[in-house]
Amino acid sequence: MAAMATITDRARALTAAREPFVHATVVRAQEPTSARPGDAAVILPDGSIEGFVGGACAENSVRAAALDALRDGNTLLLRVLPVDAATFPDTPGARVVVNPCHSGGAIEIFLRPVLPALLLGLAGSTPISAAVARLAEFCDFDLAPPGDYRGATAVVVAGLGKGEQDEIRAALEAGVGFVALVASRRRAAALLDEMELTDVERARIHSPAGLDIGARTPAEIALSIMAEVVRAVRVDGLAPAGDIAPAGGPAASTQRPAVDPVCGMTVLVGPETPHALVDGQEHWFCCPGCLARFTAA
């Protein structure tokens, strides 16, 4: 119970720090596996595992599946079965892999990616900016601290003539790919011409802000703006500032994949991954058992 509390506390701390991770929980285990139902761990984007959801034979499968879950944002039920076990039917949302350990045993691990909420920057103290803030919260966006747009997915500049150029420049320098300027087409063109922007910078600024839905009131304008932001994220693949991964996802792990030549399992190559150099070719293994079988052949 203490271990579970520790993982729970760690998950809370990562969530508060806006760090992406996968929460893994063993939901079923068959002896002689060392894992037990309720065992838990968090898997970070670099592939490191904190906690326990199985021994070395299962660890590589958990790591690879967790990083896939971080990339696509989908939950996954991972079934790790002995080599000679009857296969499960192909079920959406489930993955079956082979446990190469001689000890056998089967486990099912539920992998839940926990991604930070999308971050929205908001500039201006106007009825429109207040309406955008309310709607963004309703859409599960977090609001960036005023003037600090690092990591923001989009920035809405709704100052209506006050401090707009400074806020636009701050958003561009933070690497924000979508800056929505609340202004008429004519006023926006004049304001942006004064800023001497590059073509690339100009392309990142959207004005008039929002989809054309005939909006008139601050609430309707906010709706049109948030609809355009959501479309940019979900349809166009807009990523947070400084993020090289797909929108809502973390940067990819620096570990490269390899296929175990004995059991066929995909492993992530790291400093501690078992490997052998045979006839000038490197081979990587999920566990010392597969390495021993390969070198004994």
UniProtKB/TrEMBL annotation:
<feature type="domain" description="XdhC Rossmann">
    <location>
        <begin position="143"/>
        <end position="229"/>
    </location>
</feature>
<dbReference type="InterPro" id="IPR003777">
    <property type="entry name" value="XdhC_CoxI"/>
</dbReference>
<dbReference type="Pfam" id="PF02625">
    <property type="entry name" value="XdhC_CoxI"/>
</dbReference>
<dbReference type="InterPro" id="IPR027051">
    <property type="entry name" value="XdhC_Rossmann_dom"/>
</dbReference>
<feature type="domain" description="XdhC- CoxI">
    <location>
        <begin position="15"/>
        <end position="79"/>
    </location>
</feature>
<protein>
    <submittedName>
        <fullName>Xanthine dehydrogenase accessory factor</fullName>
    </submittedName>
</protein>
<dbReference type="InterPro" id="IPR052698">
    <property type="entry name" value="MoCofactor_Util/Proc"/>
</dbReference>
<dbReference type="Pfam" id="PF13478">
    <property type="entry name" value="XdhC_C"/>
</dbReference>
